[in-house]
Amino acid sequence: MPYEIADDGFRPFEMNAAQVVEAVKREGVKFIDLQFADLPGRLNHITIPSYHVTEEDLAEGYPKIDGSSIRGYTGIGDSDMMLKPDPNTFAIVPWSPPEQKLARMIGDVYMNRRRGRYAKDPRAIAQAAERYLRERGFSYALWGPELELFILDRVTWDVLDPFRGQSYSIESREAAWNGGGGYPIRFKEGYHPTTPQDTLLEFRNECSLYLAENFHVPVEAHHHEVATAGQVEFNVRRDTLTSMADGISTVKYVAKNVAHRLGRIATAMPKPIAMDNGSGMHVHVSLWHRPGNPSPASSQELDLEETNLFYDESEPYAELSQAARYFIGGLLEHSRSLASIVAPTTNSYHRLVPGFEAPVYIAWSRSNRSANIRIPTYITRSPATKRIEFRTPDASCNPYLTMAAILAAGLDGLGRSLDCGDPVDGNIYELTPARRRELGIRQLPGSLKEAVEALQSDSEYLRPIFPKEVLDDIVERELKDHMAIALRPHPYEFYMYFDS
């Protein structure tokens, strides 16, 4: 089914249960993959034969999930769950063999018909964030991520015997340490090289075609990123919150499958390669008002009466409205606790260090990539494109929770009129510590443990959207991850300290 890109940035794709049933028959689909996210954000799936896809089944849901076996879900004593597919996520999986033609749908998790939605389902939290936004008087938010991933040739590791030793190995035909022919990319020189040095053009093209034509997730641009050894970026066209979280999950799903088919490996691990840039996921957001109709435009072009609440053409610095300044104020206020959700792994904090183009300092500016909040100014006098770019997240996050948390922080800033203060222009890395203190510039957490401690002391702004048990699970899991690393010596420590 071809994809026609609309001007408004919403995906022009809507289906109901009857249309799904008809498409399954028309396309000769043999199986349906029903997908859902666990609490850390990894997609899980069950597969059903196509004859089990009826309008009644789709409406009622499929009682097929043992929640006790899903990360972050229930205990063994109360684990029977149902999955209700969202027809709008129907897509033919293009790499499935014709004799086993596969389609997929992302679903909502329910406890059962009587007890309703499962509160810890990440998609439920994203949907709760959109309801909260409307309750606050806004129509919708638009989200546009820049996903960075590494596409590697071979990765191995040995950690199962911590007493004998631990190691990992990374192989890539693009790697600076690869002397076996070709045109290796030097450290920090991977931004926009052309072919044949860029060996991943066909990979990115194939992913982009599948995403747009099959999965209804249009990519606006893709390119090689700064790091050596196969770092790539996909810029995804903006959409509403839950749909975009589905889209981010889909980009990772497609990238991993296409890489696998090509004999490569895709990873959202933020910093697999020492001493080079890590992978982030910069998130662009804007708030919109639609008079008399709070629901998003979906397949329609933006109505002339719709208003981007972040745009003010009379503001001389970055054409930002006061609402945008308050939203930024909320992000600044809560950046340290947000880190635990948007940068949720121990490896995330190997990326968030000075010298590798990652945000370290909590500040805002236009066109300044050393601040964790940037206002893009490629185009001026354009209400349709005015947005805020939050640069802290990476793609190892759960996208449903990440965008819900960003929205919660921004709305808290709006509710409390937290003005963002003056922008910080220039390279913040070059400022002295004294000058940063003078400007009130704080630093993002330096470790996952530090981020969790920030969340423990600053989570009230999340409570209108996030169930307490979800926040408790995040704290418990991330402290456990921190201890798992802290308990083990690192190989480089032998180099540094063995002759002590």
Describe the structure.
The protein is α+β, with helices and mostly antiparallel strands and 500 residues long. The protein has two domains: 17-118, Glutamine synthetase, N-terminal domain (Ubiquitin-like (UB roll), Roll); 128-497, Creatine Kinase, Chain A, domain 2 (2-Layer Sandwich), CATH 3.30.590. The chain is built from twelve helices and 19 strands. The protein has helices spanning 17-26, 55-60, 122-135, 201-213, 241-261, 322-342, 348-351, 399-415, 433-439, 448-457, 468-486, 491-497; strands spanning 31-37, 43-49, 62-66, 80-85, 91-92, 102-112, 116-117, 140-152, 154-158, 167-171, 219-224, 231-236, 265-267, 281-289, 307-308, 361-366, 371-375, 388-390, 442-443. The strands form three sheets. Strands 8, 11, 12, 13, 14, 15, 16, 17, 18 and 19 form a ten-stranded mixed β-sheet that branches. Helix 3 runs parallel beside helix 8 and helix 6 packs across helix 10 (448-457). The longest helix has 21 residues, at 241-261. The protein is globular. The N and C termini lie far apart (65 Å). Residues 1-11 and 296-304 have low confidence and may be disordered.
Q: What are the salient characteristics of this protein?
A:
ten-stranded mixed β-sheet; Creatine Kinase, Chain A, domain 2; 500 residues; disordered N terminus; Ubiquitin-like (UB roll); single chain
